[in-house]
Design goal:
Layout: E1 8-13, H1 24-47, E2 52-57, H2 66-73, H3 79-85, E3 92-96, H4 107-113, E4 118-124, H5 126-139, E5 143-147, E6 151-152, H6 156-168, E7 173-175
Parallel strand pairs: 1-2, 1-4, 2-3, 4-5, 4-6, 5-7
Length: 177
């Protein structure tokens, strides 16, 4: 991922997750496979002064405190993911009510405040929340990159379809870290 930190933000979508839903075990498996890449991407962002913004489901609590959401979601299956991807000092954390990180959140305002024109999207699920966020970023005239080895879906073919849509319809830069 070759991006100058100026005007860029890393958005990590729904990584704090309990995986307690239909096909959750499959998504958990694929998320574990991208975990080293997510860690590397976040380290890259930190080293290059790229703001890191987590946008996450609230699990019915509307709790904006990421520690409480982590505690709510943490279980034996996902503990490694949460422990390694927990927001750190200086990271932003927003909750979302629906699929897109932009829908009824302060994300667009935050990005404007940070003078961001380019977003790097990562997280889960690639074929749902990442795709909808890429669409909404595109509709708001942000340029978008998605490192394909930093998103996961419950099925690999769904992830590939989402990447193709993002590339061909939304002009998203698809790369690897």
């Amino acid at each position: 991922m070759k991006q100058n930190g100026l005007g860029t933000a890393l958005i990590i979508i729904d990584i704090i997750n309990d995986f307690n839903f239909y096909s959750g075990d499959k998504l958990l498996h694929h998320t574990k496979s991208i975990l080293p890449n997510l860690i590397q991407l976040k380290q890259y962002a930190k080293q290059n002064q790229i703001p890191v913004i987590y946008v996450n489901d609230h699990y019915g609590s509307w709790e904006s405190n990421f520690k409480n959401i982590c505690d709510h979601c943490r279980n034996e299956k996902n503990q490694e993911i949460i422990d390694k991807m927990v927001p750190t000092e200086g990271d932003f954390f927003l909750i979302k009510p629906k699929l897109s990180a932009f829908f009824h959140t302060g994300l667009a305002s935050l990005l404007r405040e940070l003078h961001v024109t380019h977003v790097i999207l990562s997280g889960i699920a690639g074929n749902i929340c990442v795709l909808f966020t890429a669409n909404d970023a595109h509709m708001r005239d942000f340029t978008v990159s998605v490192p394909k080895n930093c998103i996961a879906s419950n099925e690999e073919y769904l992830n590939e379809q989402a990447l193709e849509l993002m590339k061909n319809v939304l002009s998203t830069n698809i790369d690897e870290i």
